[in-house]
Amino acid sequence: MATSNSFFSHWSLKKFNATVLNDVWPEVSFFSLVATMVALVTKLTKHNLSVPNSLLTVLGTVLGLVISFRTSTAYERYQEGRKMWTNITIASRNIAQIIWIHVPFEREDKNKTQMTTVQSVVEKKSMVNLVQAFSVAVKHFLREEPGIYYEDLYSLICFLPRYADQKGPFTLGDMLPLWHASEEAQYPLHTAKIPQRTFSNATSNGVSRSSKETSVTAHSLRVPQAHSHKDRRPKIMPTESALADIQSHRPLRPARSPPSTSFLDYFPIFRIFAWMFRACHRRLGLENHDGPQKKKRKGPLPESNVPLEITTYLSAYLSYLLSNGWLTPALATGLNNNISSLQDTMTNLDRIGSTPLPFAYQAHLRMSLWLYLFFLPFQVVSSFGYLTIPGTAFAAFLLLGFLEIGQEIENPFGYDHNDLDLDSFCLAIQRELHEITAHTTPDPTQYVFTAWNQPFAPADRRSAEELTANAAEEYRHRDHEDIEPGMTSIRRVLLKNWRDVERITRQQV
Fold this sequence. Notes:
Blueprint: H1 13-17, H2 21-44, H3 54-102, E1 107-108, E2 114-115, H4 117-142, H5 154-157, H6 177-180, H7 211-220, H8 263-266, H9 271-283, H10 306-323, H11 329-354, H12 359-384, H13 388-408, H14 422-438, H15 464-467, H16 487-506
Antiparallel strand pairs: 1-2
Keywords: Cell membrane, Ion transport, Membrane, Transmembrane, Transmembrane helix, Transport
Subcellular location: Cell membrane
Membrane topology: Multi-pass membrane protein
């Protein structure tokens, strides 16, 4: 999750964890101890541990260039990931606008069956929800969180077909890949029932909420007490409360599942002891075979790419619109291009996340840097003396820090503090899609020829209602009676608009 970009803003533990201090301090401490040993032995004993520094400049320059290349390559992947998410946002807007505005509300299919306005709105809003579900599914896909049973995803796609034949049989073998890949023996889908709508805890506006959500909302809207310092912070309503309230046949996993922070995350130097303990534990055969074991799936299960499944349904909807003649070929081409853009973007994001730098390159670079920092005190102790200790510590912090930064932002789709904030991207898409569907797409004549509109300002500040009050009279500017009425007068006004705007705006520069 990305933190604030301002270095001098309010510091917090989250911002401190976003630095690489926790990652490099063990190595910096080790090389500082080596420098301390070299300086003390050289200064306090008769042994001189200094060596010629002929290779110091050459090797330092080479390592600096390689580390710079490593960091630049990782940052390019970070930037490319951000650009890909921008493409998802743009394509989602375009698809939603085409579906919501250009697909007719009142229509009949090729069988002359009339579709009501309510049916049409429900259909189009459901497809826009699928567009929103695509970005959420890509987020979980990039974070290697398989399946569809998440609080921010399930309610958006739970209405999709679950079996090859909607009339039955409802068996495991007839389950579609989207649902089959998420099937678990503990919660079998083919035995689940359609959730029944209950209104026992309905709110004042008629929307039903689960007891858990009602309690959370009530807690979120609680008025803070004046005497409580902790309650002065505004309560944040969970984002899942803005989604549909659909009961699943199995518990839903949270929208965010970041790994828990442990002692080893702050003191990574002790990881070697944990590794040695596990190795000895396995070697001695001390595993608890009698303990509870995780249930494994029996037999091969088809893998399901949830974002791909969603784009397949969007393409099928496009085919449905074309077969009924509800979309012009030009708009159908635009809709198809934007769906293809979603697929291309998902593939590129998968390429960024699943293609790390070769291990040999990373291992060789790190070992070369370790050797350089290890022999650095021996080469500078004769010139720096006791300043070798802080000099080596600074060099280690500088070089190792850039190396760790490159490694951290190489895959920017996780839960690290410097990763892209995918949750915010998905919420932004959700807000924009709801903003699009909030528009009523009225006839332009309902809002253009009103008193609120002054189309010819600043040269003519009359409203559109005044300009069109007498339809039989041609347009004539009140200050230019000598100009021929009609389009000639309009062009004169537009030309004056250009001069006035040029003069007014250039004075502000």
